[in-house]
Write a structure and sequence with these properties.
Blueprint (H helix, E strand, L loop, with lengths): L1 E6 L5 H14 L4 E4 L9 E4 L16 E4 L5 H4 L8 E2 L4 H20 L1 H5 L19 E4 L3 H12 L4 E5 L8 E5 H9 L4 E4 L23 E5 L8 H10 L2 E6 L12 H4 L3 E3 L9 H17 L14
Parallel strand pairs: 1-2, 1-3, 3-4, 4-5, 6-7, 6-9, 7-8, 9-10, 10-11, 11-12
Helix pairs in contact: 1-9, 3-5
The structure holds NADPH dihydro-nicotinamide-adenine-dinucleotide phosphate and oxalic acid.
The site of oxalic acid has 5 residues, from loops.
């Protein structure tokens, strides 16, 4: 019998205690799933930030820590973690992110806020350009960024994507590295950040890089709050260099009530809801990784500790 410890915020247990067992059964795995296994007996940890485990030292026989989140910045630097760490790539989460990004891109592109917040008797005959006239740049072309890029390209937006390694994606202009970043941002009218937070990406949008998009460009950040220098963004919003920011993630979450983002007329705050891991689809990924672990096969979505994602 394989012993899997579920260590995530209390509120997640109900859904996962229902979704995981059928996923294990489907792969013929005999798994004893519990929140109470003694650390020394655990084969796998199914983990999310905010749960009871933060010291991984006692999990001496654990073969892997399987994270339910896509972003692993809060665990990857944990010095007690010596076990292999996987991140979540979940079709349900990806679909949710595509919907969030496409929704807010279209809201921005069509200028919907003018009408939603302008029911004041003024006939605003603003005609937006067509999508083909609105260059969009995605920072990050991983599981989420590449799916969003493809969806936006299908809608006709000229999409540029930026990543660490070179990529070839039909219909997308792809760029890499430091010069590629400047090229990717220059002239963009909508910038979307789907990078992981690492030592290389922290504050990647700062006073210098925020000056590169087209004047009045919109920013959509469902990546991580610390990708952006908050003070530089506020200055860019106040000067008009950035016309609108839709922010889902923040340096401190929940975003403190007195943070200037809440009151800024050009900022939309969403409370880290862009895309949630979906238990029904994510459980299949967890089960497949346990199967692989037991079979001695490479784990899916293994985190590179050196790179931090
Ligand atoms: P992936 O690891 O699949 O993709 C990360 C992308 O970022 C890759 O294209 C990678 O390049 C690129 N990248 C990383 N470091 C650099 C760098 N230094 N320079 C250039 N490119 C870089 O992650 P996901 O797509 O699954 O997720 C992205 C992030 O989205 C998560 O880390 C998390 O922070 C956030 N997220 C937010 C959610 C929300 O609800 N707000 C939900 C889920 C995730 P390469 O391809 O070359 O490796
Ligand atoms: C994640 C997130 O990383 O929800 O999965 O932000």
């Amino acid at each position: 019998m394989i012993r899997a410890l579920f260590t995530a915020p209390e509120t997640r247990w109900d859904a996962y205690s229902r979704a995981l067992p059928p996923a294990f059964d489907a792969l013929g795995l005999r798994v004893d799933l519990s929140r109470d296994h003694a650390p020394g007996t655990v084969d796998y940890l199914i983990y999310a930030p905010g749960g009871p485990v933060s010291d991984f030292t006692p999990f001496l026989r654990a073969k892997a820590v399987l994270c339910l989140w896509a972003g692993v910045e809060s665990i990857v630097t944990n010095a007690t973690l010596t076990q292999p760490l996987t991140r979540m790539v979940d079709p349900g989460l990806t679909q949710g992110m595509v919907e969030y990004v496409v929704g807010h891109t279209l809201r921005t592109h069509l200028g919907m806020d003018r009408h939603l917040f302008g029911q004041d008797g003024v006939w605003r005959d603003y005609i937006p350009p067509l999508s083909s006239e609105r260059p969009v740049t995605l920072l990050g072309l991983g599981a989420l960024g590449s799916a969003c890029a493809a969806a936006l390209a299908t809608l006709g937006f000229p999409v540029t994507g930026w990543s660490r390694n070179p990529k070839s994606i039909p219909g997308i202009r792809t760029l890499q590295g430091a010069p590629g970043l400047r090229q990717a941002l220059t002239g963009a009218q909508i910038v979307i950040t789907l990078l992981p937070l690492t030592r290389d990406t922290a504050n990647i949008l700062n006073a210098d890089t925020l000056s590169l998009p087209a004047p009045g460009a919109a920013l959509i950040n469902p990546g991580r709050g610390s990708l952006i220098d908050d003070a530089a963004l506020l200055a860019a919003l106040d000067s008009g260099q950035i016309g609108q920011a839709t922010l889902d993630v923040f340096r401190t979450e929940p975003l403190p009530a007195d943070h200037p983002f809440w009151a800024h007329p050009q900022v939309t705050v969403t409370p880290h809801i862009a895309a949630d891991t979906r238990p029904s689809t994510a459980s299949l990924v967890i089960a497949e990784n346990i199967r692989r672990g037991e079979a001695g096969e490479p784990l899916l979505n293994l985190v590179d500790r050196r790179l931090g994602y």
